[in-house]
Amino acid sequence: MIGPAETIGPAETIGPAAARRAVLAAQGFADPRPSGPVTRRHLVRTLGRIRLLQLDSVNVAVRAHYMPVYSRLGPYPSELVDEAAWSHSARRPRLLAEYWAHEASLLPVEDWPLLRAGAKRDGWWRHYGALVESHPGLVDDVLAAVKELGPIGAGALETALGGQTRPRPPGASWWERSDVKRICEYLFGIGALTTGTRRHFQRLYDLPERVLPPHVLAAPPPSQEEAARALVLRSASALGVATEADLRDYYRIAPDHNRTALLALVEAGELEQVEVRGWARPAYRVPGARVPRRIAGRALLCPFDPLIWERRRTERIFGFRYRIEIYVPEPKREFGYYVFPFLLDGELVARVDLKADRRAGVLRVQGAFAEPEAGVARVAAELAGELREMAAWLGLEDVVVGERGDLAVPLATALR
Measuring CA to CA, how many Å separate 396 from each of 107, 255, 355, 390? Predict the structure, then answer.
């Protein structure tokens, strides 16, 4: 079995710059953005690379699942993602389903059975097991009500079930969930329920057999071992060059299953081991993985973009220390509440704290910070162009820069 620092055999050695270019290519940043309208075909290609769109409730700038597509393709109609995730027709079948992957995510419908096969580590919903055991009738009632009424939200289910259990207290925080909501989340976690659609980002539960396409439901379920190998291979393809821990994190695979699958894939020649100078652990890649000579272009990255969501990996690859400060009290924040790193020609060169002020019709840059040794004049000019484009995509009329950060004045000047 592969240990965290154990080598399998002779491995090619590559430099950190080559590893970084391979990572960016795998994530879709080596190709120019479409010159014309972005279509479903472009979305499918992007999803084929990154595999996951993480969901998050924060909407201070833009919902997390929309932004990675924008970062790679530029301005596009967000309805492309909505339609792929939450609607179905014979002409345009559903492409995505919701499930716990890295976190709560949209993923290709074909991958849903892989994540339910037992290769992932146990989710947080297991803590609701005691409630399930003490209220077995409620589980049956929730499933019956969803079957009759779905897609349906937890609040409507509580009403339909007549408030037979502890409701959510008036004025309670989001975390103080009702028993019905806890049961719904438990059933979602084990795959007995999924998301039929969303309304104002509220999850409306439905039965998987009414959401997943027939060919997915009819396929033989994969074994735990088959699922682990498929998920590790998908991780490797999406990550470009990755350590064992990186591969495990992409889908939150259980450590033992991840190591066993990794060994099997290397022995089968489906993955190969490489050494990256400066990395403390061996890395792995798909044979023939693309390594461009250079990376050009620019992109703003939301905190939940798969390129940067694993913070230690981000620091190892880009030399960029990044933490999300949503839960840090405002006086203690270093850079801001919802900070977007700025990617320019393959390097993370700046970061901006963004807020979409929809009432005023402006994209507010509440803080702007350049990385050490970044060429401030060029970074400010390129960032200004990207912010204008993002604002227009969000339907905002202007970009307004605040005073925080060493890049604030140059950026405001570039935006004039």
Answer: 29, 45, 11, 9
Q: Which of 155, 138, 260 is nearest to 205 (CA)?
A: 155
Confidence tier at 163 by pLDDT (50, 70, 90): low
Tokens 């104002």 belong to residue: 200
Residue type, 277: R
Give the pLDDT confidence score for residue 89 in this predicted structure: 85
Element (H, E) at 119: none
> Are the C-beta atoms of 336 and 367 separated by less than 8 Å?
yes
The H or E element spanning position 95 is none
Paired tokens of 132:
């399930």
pLDDT at 169: 46
User: Do 116 and 123 contact (CB within 8 A), yes or no?
Assistant: no
What share of the chain has pLDDT > 70, as a percent? 94
pLDDT tens-digit map of 348-374: 999 999 999 999 999 999 999 999 999
Q: Are 113 and 221 in contact (CB under 8 A)?
A: yes
Could you give the 3-state DSSP secondary structure of residue 370?
strand
Closest CA to 48 of 107, 119, 103: 107
Tokens 């461009």 -> residue: 292
Paired strand residues for 199: 202
Q: Is the dihedral of CA 175, 181, 187, 188 positive or negative?
A: negative
| Both structure tokens of 65 | 């699942």
- List Cβ neighbours of 22 (8 Å cut-off, separation of 6 or more): 14, 240, 241, 285, 289, 290, 291
Q: Does residue 211 sit in helix, strand or coil?
A: helix
What are the backbone dihedrals phi and psi of residue 354, each rounded to the nearest 5 degrees, phi first?
Answer: -110, 145
